[in-house]
Design a protein that fits this description.
about 45% helix, alpha+beta, five-stranded mixed beta sheet, four-stranded mixed beta sheet, single chain
Length: about 280
Amino acid sequence: DDGSTMPLTTIQQKYGNDVLCLRQIHAGLGAARNYGMENASGEYIQFVDADDLLDSDEYNSCIEKIKDGTLDVLVFSMKRNKKALKWHSIHHNVEELFNSGAEYMAQHNIQGSAWSLLFKRILVKEIRFPINMLHEDEGFTPLLFLEAQKTLLCGMNPYIYTQRPNSIMNSKSKDYLQKRLSDFLYILIDLNLKVSKYEGVQNKALKRRIAQLTMDSIYNAIKLLHSRKCLYQHIQLLEKNRLYPLPTNRYTWKYSLFTLFANNRIGLYLLYTLLS
């Protein structure tokens, strides 16, 4: 509980001894999740945001898959809850087992949201969410995958995500949009500084994720700010931190096409014209 005014006794009365209730002074989502992880005692961890739900039938099927303790991470997807429990599934509907989280991340554009993972608590002894940051999941999830061994991409969608038009992530405030981009860039730079710590498939996986996030940051600089000047300033910051030009690896057709445009001045102008 990140500093709400609801009495903890109200929650405890509802769930009894099945739930340990923790409250911190308001410090944001990253700090709240870190506090939860530090006080967790179970073998696995699952994050669920306060306004979201879990489909109990599908989630129980996920639990069955981890009961023997051999999986480090189970990856699932979501249903989008637009209003009054009417939802539809999105993302993957396949099942695939990987020898490591790095192998999975090296071959896929991962879902960065931490709620999409059911993972062993032991993996996050040294990993924490960035504090007072937007997009904090992007600074956590890739590092978790680099620590994981057996990783299952599950074909189920047990998470029910509530889309609220007045949520903070839908804010149109200029200051907020600038913070989104600057926080995202901070996390990108931090991940890039960690690349040299890893070798082999882990190094390859983290580089792929950084390239994907860099592409996203350029796209967001165009879509959120609607300013060529701001876009070119953003490109200069990426270049200064050795994140630009984008690597020309053929990760996906979308990435390859975006890179073809984004890596030169004329292409950037065309991207800005098409997307803004």
